[in-house]
Amino acid sequence: MSKIIVAGAGHGGLTAAYNMAKAGHRVAVYEKNTPETVGHAWHDGMWLGSFDRVNMPRPTEMEFRPNKDMVFFNPKKTKTLTLNFEPSANTVFVDRHALVLYLVSQCRSVGVEFYFGSEVLSGECSFDRVRGLRVRTPEGKEETVFGDLVIDAAGMDSPVRKSLPARFGIPNEIPDADAFFVYRAYFEKTDPEAFDPRYSVYFFHCGHPGMDWMITEEDCMDVLVGKFGGLSQREIDESLADFRAEYPAMGSAVVRGGYMSKIPLTKTLSLIVANGYAAVGDAAGMTVPLNGCGIDLSLQAGGILANVASGVKDGNYTREALWPYQERYCILDGNKLVIVAKLRAFLATLRGENVDFLLENDILTQTEIGMAGGNMRAVNFRYILRKLKRLLPQAYLLPAAAKQMKGVVRLPKITSAMPAAYDEARVKRWRAIYDSI
Ligand SMILES: Cc1cc2nc3c(=O)[nH]c(=O)nc-3n(C[C@H](O)[C@H](O)[C@H](O)COP(=O)(O)OP(=O)(O)OC[C@H]3O[C@@H](n4cnc5c(N)ncnc54)[C@H](O)[C@@H]3O)c2cc1C
Q: Measured between alpha carbons, how far is residue 241 from residues 33, 205, 299, 393 in Å?
């Protein structure tokens, strides 16, 4: 029996904790929030099939919000694109606080211990391995907790990943340039009759490089203001003022949320395992880099991690023993999303008028928006050529577009070069290809 310690009650950490505890290990989770404040104060989309994949029962008592057709607006609001939602009982909008509490209750049912109100300060390392965590207890005392394996599920700015010595090879930082900065709030709805069946998404709203949304719910107005690389209070205020002018039912009182967060919009980090350490979820850069969705990826990655770690003999969680976790995750999802990260990188180089041009000239269509979910089936050489040709009137965009699209043709190389077993030289070669794209 090994001792597993989890930094942060992130989704991936909790599914790993659940499965490791079921396999007979002692598991403890250190979370800085309390059970009252853990998880986000709003609803987000997820796929219920993720629970099946990690052998956890699906929640039966949870209330879900209905999904809606999405309408995308260009910055000038002269053109819209509609993505029709195909109803499915498996795709739901879930209350993020309730979701984490559900995962916690499942973990507790198999003996996982929770230390809420405990802030993880850093990893505790010996020369060649991660041995534990430095933690500040709710009473303000600093202490070290030791484990055979540290699972880092503390999100994009994980203090554990940031503290690891360079010799472990794990990237410490996810740069702000690769992050989506978001403000999200549920505002009061002043007119109960106000109704809009759509989930309205505004590209480069008020000229800010990013994406905002407005969803008119039964009981509130769900607003997100999001920008690549950074977001100021002035930009938030501009977006909210524009929404208020367009949606008179949006009141001024915030009924839920009302704070800023960050989402990594990058490819998965090129190394997420070290001796005694594995990162999962946002801490490992596991999101769809265009739309920022990471719940399903994190849950499923946690399942893969537990599966691999449970097969490790004598609790000797070396980098070699944990590598199959990274390899399986990348083959399943991570490698495919590299191209989505390229598309996002291209979008981040644009100005509002470029986005107007892309939408008005059918360069950005339903097909490309659909790619946010990672479906790149339409992309081939002819497709790229056709798109580049249409870009000709704004030819100055071509070098940036060509640079990002070059990655598409190199994608099969990443997958085929990825070693199934850890071998230092081969992993180094693979990382060089992966990081260069
Ligand atoms: C506004 C918004 C909308 C989103 N919408 C969607 C969506 O519709 N669908 C989707 O799939 N994804 C969505 N995401 C992304 C999704 O939230 C993340 O990808 C997902 O939560 C990642 O899960 P995780 O396992 O990495 O853990 P996280 O959710 O990042 O949780 C990390 C946990 O670690 C804790 N923690 C952090 N630091 C410390 C510390 N020092 N000590 C102790 N504990 C710590 C945190 O309190 C938190 O509980 C959205 C994100 C935002 C911000």
A: 32, 11, 37, 34
